[in-house]
Amino acid sequence: MTLLEFAAVIAASYLVGSIPWGYIAGRVMKGIDVRDYGSGATGATNVLRTLGKGAFVAVLLADAMKGFVPVFVTWQAFGSHELQVASGLAAVLGHDFPVYIGFRGGRGVATTFGVYAALALEVGFGLVAVALFIMLTFRYMSLMSIITVPLGALVFLLLAVTGVQGDALGLREYNYTKAGFGGFATAFVILRHIPNIRRLIRGTEPKLGDGGGRRKAAPTG
């Protein structure tokens, strides 16, 4: 791995991760900035609140692909787990701080799921099943986020500790490098969801699809 390769992977992954699909959907469908509504984020959860179920599904899949595609392409091009993880980190940072719209994006959950799937497809599918269960049972997207992302990190850590081998999508091994991505993603998702955690504790967190009104003090930029 050369410095040029590393820089190219980081830059390309960040720019892909920065594509603000939720923002684009709001502009195309209703001529609005979704960041002026609901939670103020560009992710699929806020899109559901402001644009409806169809846009939610489309943006959810598009945001997940922002994590999956760069990491998968990086593995196929370089065969490096370290570059894979660097790509995933850059894609998540791009989603949360997109250069195209003033660095105000989402919270990185769907993109993190895409990275998890590229690192180990079976882990990604397993987490999707858990996520669906939590969403349908408790109807809190934030609760799903703060449970499933750390769970993915724990699964990668356990697989690295036990030395389990895998081959999904060209995967050759589970290792601590991939567990490291899970640790980063966990810390980042928890930090980005601190207000949600506080509302969950107080019992004031909006449930799935609720809370899509215009923000009282919409941020500019």
Description:
This protein is mainly α. The chain has one domain (3-202). It is built from ten helices and no strands. Helix 1 (3-17) runs antiparallel to helix 4 (53-78) and helix 2 (21-30) packs parallel to helix 3. The chain starts with a helix and ends in a 19-residue tail after the last helix. 45% of the residues are buried. Mean pLDDT is 91; it is low at 167-171.
Describe this structure in a few short sentences.
69% of the residues lie in helices and 0% in strands.
Outline the biggest β-sheet: none
**Cα separation of the termini:** 38 Å
- Gyration radius, to the nearest Å? 17 Å
Structural class determined from secondary elements: mainly alpha
Strand-residue proportion:
under 5%
Low-confidence stretches: 167-171
Counting H and I runs of at least 4 residues, what is the number of helices?
A: 10
Compressed to H and E, one letter per element, the order equals HHHHHHHHHH
Helicity, in percent? 55-70%
Instruction: Count the domains.
Output: 1
Mean pLDDT: 91
Number of strands: 0
Give the overall silhouette: globular
